[in-house]
Amino acid sequence: MDGERRIGRGVFLATVLGGATSLAWGKPVWSKVSGALGGAEALVPLVPTKGWRIYTVASTMPTFDPATWRLSIGGLVQQPVSLGYDELRALPRVNQVSTFHCVTGWTVQDVRWGGVRLHDVLAQAGPLPEAGGLEFVSAEEPYVDSLSTSQAALKDVLLAYEMDGRPLAREHGAPLRLVIPDMYGYKNVKWVREINLVAQPQPGYWELLGYDQDAWVGRSNGYSS
Amino acid sequence: MRPAREAGRAAPTAAPGYVRRFSRTERVLHWVNAAGFLLLLGSGLVLYLPSLASSVGRRPTVKDVHFWAGIGWVSALVLIAVLGDRRGLLRTAREIDAFSREDVNWLRRRRPAEQGRFNAGQKVNAALTAAFLVLFVVSGMLLWAGERDTRFRFASTVVLHDGLLYASLVLLVGHLYLAVLHPATRHALRGMTVGTVREEWAREHHARWHAGRD
Predict the structure, then answer these.
(1) In this predicted structure, what is the pLDDT of residue A209?
(2) B214 touching A, CB under 8 A?
């Protein structure tokens, strides 16, 4: 055949090379495109709203019953307490806009959280001076993670019961999740039902599988920015 | 090149008025690829879409299904290629690789544009499908390994894996339209299921192949 050219392998190799190099440029480029679209990509079917993915470790998600739900705070405290949903909602409310980073690479910009400062909740129980860490136990067993007391004392650490103007949805941890914007999502424990003050932070669910104890965004888990 | 009617090694004779377009190895490879892709698409969407993730749940199980479906998909394709008509597949790969002047004309909607056994669009589709498969496997293995060892963790892996999902859905929708709905081309589905196509259809759509010049 005259004028035959080997184009098929060119298409194949160029696509593989383009895709493979996108490991170096994919995320920044996509952030720009997504920012330029201004959320218009959500109009396309199949695109998850605002970029959220739902990660769970158990076979079913916990269900929330406002009548029976309680948050208990115990361990190294002056007075263990247990708060019902209404009691929690009666504490001083804070609104906060922060960005959520998942360690697997996806990011959700400008999430509008409503909730209570962790500090205000802890004050109900009165942590003892020897407490060096906090353990957050999820109703989704066996998920658990912990922070040091200094990490937990950061001003933007919340226990959130609202997201984007609505009560926290089941898949986002209803009724209550931890929000610590400086750390990756696996520290932002969903379905929090128990906070224990302990002498030292203990490795949580993902730490036992090799993730970093101090999950600073951009400075842990193999990332450096 | 060998005449069209000997394309498959076993080359069973076609019924009168029909010509053999795809060998058994080619057809098995195609359908195993399709089945594997659909299984991965289904399990992948459950992992990816919040609404499905919530209603189905069982994420650890779905993750295992997705992972092992991927391993099974690639293994099955390799096994078919190794145990099937290897020489025939290599010949097919060369057909897909080679673009004649008519193929380039076909893409530019110019004449003459008589096509071989594959038209230029089908060649591009095959090359992209193969490239997407490689990239799906590489990015999928990186997602799997990165969860276990941070040296394999890249912020863009998930962007690549998701981007491939959208790109391959675009290809799939176009492919399904041409293979199932579009009146002029849907006869090709017969070639991919039973292996043979009508001779007059072959003459019209794949003249170069029908004439044995491909």
Answers:
(1) 92
(2) yes
